[in-house]
Design a protein that fits this description.
four-stranded antiparallel sheet
Amino acid sequence: MFPWGLMKMEVWSNLGSILATLIFIRSVVREYLPRELCDLFSKSLRRLLGMVSSYISVVIEENDGMKVSEVYEAVQTYLSARSSSAAERLKLKKPKNSKDFTFSLDNNQKISDKFEDIKVRWAFHSIELNQKTRSPWNSASDEKRYYELKFHKKHKHKIFGEYLPHVITEGKNLELRSRHRKIYTNEYRYWSPVMFDHPATFGTLALEPEQKQEILEDLQRFQRGEKYYRQVGRAWKRGYLLYGPPGTGKSSMIAAMANFLDYDIYDLELTQVQNNTELRKLLIATTNKSIIVIEDIDCSLDLSDRKKKKKKKAQKEGEEKDKASEPSKTDETEPKEESKVTLSGVLNFTDGLWSCCGSERLFVFTTNHIDRLDPALLRSGRMDKHILLSFCKFGAFKTLARNYLSIEDHELFPQIKDLIEAAEMTPADVTEHLMKMNRDAAGALQNLIEALRDAKERRATAVPEENACATVEGEA
């Protein structure tokens, strides 16, 4: 008995010495060697331990090429529901406009999970990246984040075949139940989100009932059309062009579409995009079930009609010749680097090969001047449906009266009906007059009638002047 006991003590003593030596070597490596060699040493040590270990580790990284991994997001949501009661150190967040807190594991924290009497262990790790190791697709992130799942080798088939699919399914279900819509804006190469809580719905939009119903039916057909789009060989996407004068509700329409479909919004600022390559990367980084918006596209970049542009170019060349003899003035300020996004890049963005890298997405462009846009941008397949949002008509006014005055009918409505179309007043202007006296419905309506009469008179005076100017120009 004694020799065997002595031998056991000797084994434990040797094992302790080996562990102490490894810990000492690791501390020396971390202290004196560069980060790259430290990482190499750590990987080699893990590989050595893995050869004699009875456990398997699975790493799930945050980035999957040019976008966030769906598996990573599902795991994060799944563990978030369990980490509040199991982890020792947590990160707590409260998204804007949300009533609930969200929890996630802090760096190097571990929690256990159980699946059909099988125990597994999860850990979260975050490694700071330097300039060389940073991902070119996600330059905004200076960290490499990943989850590590550890389990016994004998449960490998059960974990891969049942547990991991269960985690992903449960994570996605939790995400749907607690989902908050987001609106993203681009900062050069990446998207930055905030919670989206816009109150606009199709019930509150100032539109004629027939037009509103047509748009709703079109959106419903698109949302149910996955099988149809695949059958006809087209990417599951659709383009909308909202055009009309300022103040006619184009932004509210986009918010109502997002609320109706339960989609996120990606508000793309083209002037912040340096070139077509960056534009493509931003497109790939968007998620399914989303609306990609470019507002006031005629002002964002030079996307005007190329035929008209040639005429202007000839005129400009003549003016430059006249100014050639004038002394040039030096500009002391450094010129800001302009966006090099081209019309071709935008066309490929909406309808090229890369536009099908995702599904169930809407592209919505808005403009106040449809005549300034190149016809190539307006054709079907890019902008499939053109929606004119024009001046307020009587049907749209009744919606505004219900929203702001809480009335369905009034004795002054017939006067407004006779005046409103000839006055050519936008819904935004009508709203402003209603809000001035929203506690006095009769007073607000009378105030609106006077404003409509003034607008009608101004309109009647302006038309002959415009015709006279046009005649003079024609004679000249």
